[in-house]
Amino acid sequence: MGEAKEEERTTYPLPPPTHTPPPPPGTDSLSLKFQILKPPSPTTTPIPQFLSTHHPSSIRAILCSGYIPIDAPIITSLPNLGCVVTTSAGLNHIDLAECRRRGVVVAKAGGVFSVDVADYAVGLLIDVLRRISAGDRYVRSGRWGRKGRGEYFPLGSKLRGKKVGLVGLGNIGSEIAKRLEAFGCIISYNSRRRKPGVSYSYYPNICDLASDSDVLVVACPLTDETRHIINEDILSALGKDSIVINIGRGALVDEKELAWCLIQGEIGGAGLDVFENEPSVPKELFLMENVYCLLIMQIIPQNPFEDLFDLSIANLEAFFAGQPLLTPVKCD
Known about the structure:
The chain is α/β, with parallel strands linked by helices. The protein has helices at residues 30-33, 47-52, 72-76, 96-102, 114-130, 132-140, 171-182, 206-211, 232-237, 255-263, 283-286, 304-320, and strands spanning 10-13, 35-36, 61-64, 83-86, 105-107, 163-167, 186-190, 201-202, 215-218, 243-246, 269-272, 291-293. It has twelve helices and twelve strands. Helix 5 packs across helix 7. The relative contact order is 0.13. Residues 1-8 and 15-26 have low confidence and may be disordered.
């Protein structure tokens, strides 16, 4: 590692796991603006151990993905840490309470992924309702040509006119709502408080929202309060033909209860691209044709990474210049 360009501009990117996409073009330009300390894989050397031997007092900022926790031990091991910039939309990997206590500011990905996640969520919903992937598997398996016209393939359901309940109406939830309005869906939502200027029906109680919805789309942040927010009570409130779509975080849904309700026919189907213990997926979900299990990375096309990279750089530059962050997080 060469000489520090400016000690106060030292930043600390945490390595993504091997299954994450490659960094965007131009990542090397980070080293033109900041001195970069690149720790090894956490499986080789624990991050706190690595930091303790690499001048922890010189580190002013962390640049991280959503896969490695920025917890209290890491934060407290860096006495001069002032900023954490994450490239993820979620924040459950960052100890926000410790950041608040230490006066560390946090920046997130903002709305970089919102449009793409919304497109994907609507596509996933259409897939579940119209049984598109199931039809593909049916044809590939050769069942179409068996016994005359083939084995019975259950028909799907239309999207138009469906009552859709959104659990969370942030950037992503709002974009999903816009798209579903174009399909003639009736939109309702739940959030911590009513959104000013929003015409959709507001339900302060999720159980009431579920009981009045054909589709429940989970798009809220994962916190201690929202963990397993979709539980037995909520699933029971949904009808037998209802659909659950989760594009938030896996732990927002109680997977055991979800699997049980699907097996018992208490709900009609589910579309999931996040799971509580990724990459482990409950085996029961694989046994059902009305459950669609996808990769979270399918949400993101290649081009948004350039925008995300530029935003991350801009947040770091703002921090080191003593300016407000572009996409700040409230740590309260």
